[in-house]
Amino acid sequence: MSTFSSSSGSLASQLSSGAEFRRGLRESLPVLIGFLPIALVLGAQATAKGFQVWQVPLMTGGNFAGGSEFVAVGLWAVPPDLLLIAAMTLLVNSRHLLMGAALAPLVRHLPARKIFPSLFVMCDESWAMGLADAKKRGVFSLPYYLGTSAGMWTTWVLFTFIGAFFGPMIGDLSVFGFDMAFTAVFLVLLRGAWTGFKAARPWFVSLAVAAPTYLVLPGAWYVATGAISGLVAAFFLAEEK
Amino acid sequence: MSNGLIAILTIAAMGAVTYCTRIGGFLLLRNRSLSPRALAVLEAVPGCVLISVIAPRFVSDKPAELLALAITLLAAWRLPLLPTVLVSVVATGLLRHFM
Predict the structure, then answer these.
(1) In whole angstroms, what is the distance from residue A100 CA to residue A122 CA?
(2) How many CB atoms lie within 10 A of CB A7?
(3) Are residues A129 and A200 in the same domain?
(4) Are residues A96 and A210 in the same domain?
(5) How far apart (Å, rounded) are the C-alpha atoms in residues A28 and A93?
(6) Does A65 share its domain with A78?
């Protein structure tokens, strides 16, 4: 990957950044369409759990990481448990550490004033598209990546807000089964991360610990005990390789 | 503290924590590599958190909820995201109504 960064300076500067930005925006369209239903469901769920309508775009714009937002909404109460939600956000988004590390050799030559704002909008999809484009063209295009990210950020914030706004008018979503939507989203995310039973063993440990914890302990301790026991399992299982 | 203030602080904390994860990997790891064990733990993190959050669904005492979960699980295994959500929501709504 380090070969990409060496040649990028001259080539990247010759490309029109406006055109690159628009190319990113254009190629991200299918992803944006995929965002719509999820964003609407998240927004509606959030107001059902006690979010004020205006707090929803505040969260989705300032956080911009869907998985952790579904977790936060799932754990939300009035008032919310700040430490629990912050800790779960850290756990869910810890994958960003790996993503940022993978991106590092491609953006190392750029000035810090460009890198740090750009990393704010790094999500699974924009990261993947930026990296795939770099692989294909041999150079990481920052404006292309920012184009994909800009569409995703705007779509996410706008449609979670719309979901939050119209959610209360639909009424209690659990009557219709809408609260199962986020279980469905999580299961699809898990399926996407599935690489075989062996790699998924820590997940089963998490489930086996979290479910009984939920039955015996009040509050949301089950998330912490489940997640931590899964990670301990991952730590020890890794030795077998 | 008022509930609204705690909510805003929680939302601010989420944003701050998430931004740290975004720049943290770049800052800490740009000049070194992780051990295979650390990598294995990091890779397991999202899955462990997701399954833990939905774990209560697996131990519901209502048959309709368990059946709805089974249908959702099956759909998630076979279908893309949007159809899975639709199948799951419709099945859950119907099962709650009729069972």
Answers:
(1) 8
(2) 11
(3) no
(4) no
(5) 22
(6) yes
**B51 shares contact with chain A (CB less than 8 Å):** yes
Q: Identify whether residues A132 and A209 lie together within a single domain.
A: no
pLDDT in tens, A27-54: 888 778 778 878 988 999 899 999 999 9
Q: Are residues A126 and A170 in the same domain?
A: yes
Q: Say which of A80, A189, A241 has its CB closest to residue B50.
A: A189
Mutate to test the interface with A, among B1, B2, B9, B18 (most CBs of A within 10 A): B18
Cβ separation A34–B91 shorter than 8 A:
no
Smallest Cβ–Cβ distance between A191 and the set B37, B43, B77 belongs to: B77
Integer Cα distance of B19 and A110 in angstroms: 19
The Cα of B6 is separated from the nearest Cα of chain A by a number of Å equal to: 6
pLDDT digits over B22-80, tens only? 999 888 766 666 688 887 887 787 788 789 888 999 999 999 999 999 999 999 999 98
CA distance A10 to chain B (A): 22
CA distance A86 to A81: 9
CA-CA-CA-CA torsion sign (A99, A203, A227, B5): positive
Range of the domain at A229: 196-241
* Model confidence, pTM: 0.71
Instruction: Give A-chain residues touching B80 at CB under 8 angstroms.
Output: 188
Cβ neighbours of B29 in A, within 8 Å: 97, 100-101, 104
